[in-house]
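Ticket #4471: complex job returned nothing on first submit. Input attached below:
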Amino acid sequence: MQNLPLYKQLADHYLNAIRCGTLKLGDRMPSVRKLMHVHGVSLSTALQLCRQLETEGWLEARPRSGYFVRQPRRVRLIPAQEPTIGKIIDPAQFVGIHEKVSEIIAQGQRQVKCNLARATGGPALYPHQQLRSLTVSTLRRYPELLTKTITPGGNRELKAALAKRALDSGISTSADQVIITNGCIEALNLALRAVAQAGDVIAVESPTFYGLLQVLESLGMKALEIPTSPSTGISVEALELAMRTYDNIKAVVVVPHLQNPLGSMMPDQHKQKLVALCEKQGIPLIEDDSYSALADGDKIPTALKQWDHSGNVIYCASVHKILAPGMRVGWILAGRWQERVNMLKYAHTRYNEELSQIVTATFLLSSAYDRHLRKLRSSLAVQREKMAEAIATYFPEGTRVTMPAGGVSLWVEMPAGTSSRAVFDAALEESILVSPGLMYSNSNRFDHFLRINCGMPYTQDLDDAMRLLGRIIQHQASSKQHIAA
Amino acid sequence: MQNLPLYKQLADHYLNAIRCGTLKLGDRMPSVRKLMHVHGVSLSTALQLCRQLETEGWLEARPRSGYFVRQPRRVRLIPAQEPTIGKIIDPAQFVGIHEKVSEIIAQGQRQVKCNLARATGGPALYPHQQLRSLTVSTLRRYPELLTKTITPGGNRELKAALAKRALDSGISTSADQVIITNGCIEALNLALRAVAQAGDVIAVESPTFYGLLQVLESLGMKALEIPTSPSTGISVEALELAMRTYDNIKAVVVVPHLQNPLGSMMPDQHKQKLVALCEKQGIPLIEDDSYSALADGDKIPTALKQWDHSGNVIYCASVHKILAPGMRVGWILAGRWQERVNMLKYAHTRYNEELSQIVTATFLLSSAYDRHLRKLRSSLAVQREKMAEAIATYFPEGTRVTMPAGGVSLWVEMPAGTSSRAVFDAALEESILVSPGLMYSNSNRFDHFLRINCGMPYTQDLDDAMRLLGRIIQHQASSKQHIAA
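Support reply: We reran it on our side without changes. The output follows.
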């Protein structure tokens, strides 16, 4: 932060004094003259310092008395706006998202000081030591593992372990049904290719993970965005309306738990209705369940797949977010498309490397996995709290933020009109990476949102970055108002 | 082999005596009466024994004198037949290969005593100890490798190492141009998806690797099979003719070196003509160069890509066959489709796991890699020789076999009319897995061929299996003649 202009450095200095209680609520801020004297700065710098803290809500100016410490505004920790249901659904469109976001993704691949764009936890949250020693012992157990032909059809131990763990989500399946993939993204590709073709319409949540929109685009499919609530997930009513309006929907893709980016959780009743609706309409339902193990509490939420009695639900998941972001172990339960997905996986990428499969299997079957999950969930809960607090403290008035019941992200609605693209650019200048809302939809409905990662421990550096980000948003929000005015 | 009928066990006993010189050329075989007495077997068993060895060509019956050891027939070690060029090319067809071979692939996933269906060497041919210790040291060097987010865009060290090694194939490229994939099969998928769509016609070699036909089928593309010579590879003349006949060919896929299954090597002049033809016609040329490092001699053959001046050649390869069948490290140089392939790879499977990328990079950059290749090539040369010898010795008259200048497979033409499917079934009964010719084409042109792996050291067990396989083919070939007569 040494590159900050002098007035901002001084503003930070006094902000620290306020936050640690050296300057209390109602205290008078040193006068401008005193500030000039003490810090050897110009009048303009001293004034900028005070105005900065005023803008951020830490000081209030009283006529002829100077600046006083005030109770800062706090951002309302309430969900981002509920979508309007019942209005006409946007027409399905060929996804043009890649062009829209490829530059953002490319820029995001730079090394930055603070990466808030991830959808995983930081490395410290995952059992790297245990996975490392399992890797070494697996190689000892199977000395030729790297050089012998990979066991066809996926590693048996892993398939059995995943089938066993799926019980926790209410899914009753067998090892034979499990198809191992390169992460959840390959699972989604296979699922979509199994049930639909180029030109077909796929119903998705809105906002939805840009990765899904990219997959649709790469497959030449059209996305139909269905309003989705930050608290209860996709609107089953809106989906039903869409199915009445469009007769060419070939699949529905849903993240029922800790939806990305909203963090919403579908109530069980909604899940049942959704499964029944899709079955009745004969439209395959693709469930992306990558996050459910990160939900607060000890009970893993029940998968849509539990209510599936006809094989109409294709279940996709991975260990990427919950066990090891460096490992590409995903899987799929393909219901009545089992044979076709098996064929596609074989033609697509053959089988996954066996080393990480066996390591994952061994860990999943151990009690260390349960301990890991408990620790992971409680660390994430603390970190989410801290990040929400930072947003409440530093982000400008008019910001809204959803507190999801688990997971690694917060979905932040900035004051109306604030451009997430402009915030992205300005933050990147300061070596802070955020995930702008415009990536999560083909509409411009989420252009003033950000997805903020909370997978990292809340350190002083992170606090500095959040404060700086708050200022950037403040700046963008007020310049927007300026233009509007 | 304890399960063999008694007469076959005894036939093996006498065959050994013949092969080690105890019974010499022209020697009289013990009489049937003596065989009955010595082995305590029935007349019928003794007769069956002699007839078996007669059928296999080791004995000849002389009227009223009994059986005598004869010079066995030897299979001609000449290439399988050259294709007929100039005739009308088969119409392009939607590949129906998966249905045709899925059952064969599924059956081939059983544990067998002798697997001759692989297209890789046995594990002993690859540096498993070195790769293992590199894995362990890599984890020591990057303790959080399994749990931190994967470096975007593929591991830099590996991309640099591959660019450097590509120089040996005459390719001048940079690390930036290298896109890492899950094996060569993902590279082929991405290349095809970059340049063509469902319904498009793709020109392929005939015979060609069934994996490629499956990829085309899974993408809804049509295969146009171009006659391909067992010695010089795809016929550029036939391809030119096809391009005149069909105006909708969207890509050409070629394995210029050690073609799978033929083992053919394109002469440099053909390669240049092919590159120029495709460029002139504006048809993308996809090169699968998975095997070239297995070619005899110290010079790696020059890739098609070397003659590519317009970015019209997409180069695909992997370390699967040459370094580690258990690792899924492939790569692609996508020419003028670089950006599109990058996007497709990201949407397809994100990035490969980093552990095997770093291990591969480290090994490729060491001199151990050159030593490994030299050893691998010379082991394969010995093993190919032994297998060809076994085929010459045990397979029935009328068999032809190509001796490729490198690689892990022999392409065997059985006597006309012999069904490779029947041989596959009968061999599997004996726990021997072969790769039937019918998998390598949509036509029935190769139904009497087998691809035989020669990646394993030639042991007594393997010799037993080859002898048994020879008998099976003999049986199928003569039963076919029987039906024909």
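Chain A touches chain B through 61 residues (CB under 8 Å). Closing as resolved unless it happens again.
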